[in-house]
Specification:
Blueprint lengths: L17 H11 L16 E2 L8 E2 L25 E5 L6 E2 L5 E3 L10 E4 L8 E7 L3 E8 L10 E7 L2 E7 L8 E9 L2 E8 L9 E3 L1 E6 L1
Antiparallel strand pairs: 1-2, 3-14, 4-7, 5-6, 6-13, 7-12, 8-11, 8-14, 9-10, 9-12
Length: about 220
């Protein structure tokens, strides 16, 4: 589906004739099309990927969106792509022999989780994620919380602009999903989220589960 707004009455756009618009729609691949005359004040409003609110995407002839418009809305009911990876997911988690395994905490995701002492070396545990297409994704982590766990655990997210580190206090907010933020990730299969041991915080760093969701 294509939604096209033709701006006019400005120095940057002179509009289109019906024939020009029809030819343009055919060039996009449309088989059928309908033209609605907005009287020169048509406005296209959309929520862009990664945004939480809508914004005006064209240049209305009045300079801004009308205060009292008539609207035609299109709302997607499709669920966003999402994947959850546990430390026990086959082929999706790797860690060196320096990482132990525990099922001590009832706040764990699944049967167990991994833990390691902090050191002055990264030695990260990695979660491998197959990203379907380049775009913005919310990354969340699940871990059991304990007063003896690390208060500054470094989580690494491999983005299109390089690795970004988010530090999490693993003494609180355990047993639920905790958001690291929204990141621009590249399409393809690879190590996307890591848990590093390199921290000045004290206590075990924990690697349990992650969730990545398209936004």
């Amino acid at each position: 589906m294509w939604l096209v707004v033709v701006d006019g009455r400005s120095t940057t756009s002179v509009g289109m004739t019906y024939v020009e618009l029809a030819n343009y729609m055919r060039s996009l691949g449309a088989d059928d099309a309908i033209n609605l005359d907005g009287g020169g004040s048509s406005t296209l409003v959309a929520r862009m990927p990664g945004a939480t609110s809508v914004s005006v995407r064209n240049t209305p002839s009045d300079g801004s969106q009308r205060a009292v418009p008539n609207g035609l809305g299109f709302v997607s009911t499709a669920q966003p792509w999402s994947t959850t990876i546990d430390n026990t997911t086959p082929g999706r988690f790797t860690a060196s022999g320096n990482w132990g395994t525990s099922s001590y905490s009832g706040q764990r995701y699944g049967t167990d989780y991994r833990f390691a002492n902090p050191v002055l070396a990264s030695d990260p545990a990695w979660y491998r994620v197959n990203i379907p297409e380049t775009g913005n994704y919310r990354v969340e982590v699940w871990y059991p919380a304990d007063p003896g766990y690390n208060d500054s655990t470094p989580f690494i997210v491999a983005t299109t602009s390089g690795n970004q580190t988010v530090r999490v206090n693993q003494r609180t907010n355990g047993g639920r999903w905790v958001s690291l933020g929204v990141f621009h990730l590249a399409a393809g299969d690879g190590d996307r989220v890591g848990v590093s041991r390199w921290t000045s915080g004290t206590g075990y760093v924990i690697a349990d589960a992650i969730r990545v969701t398209r936004v």
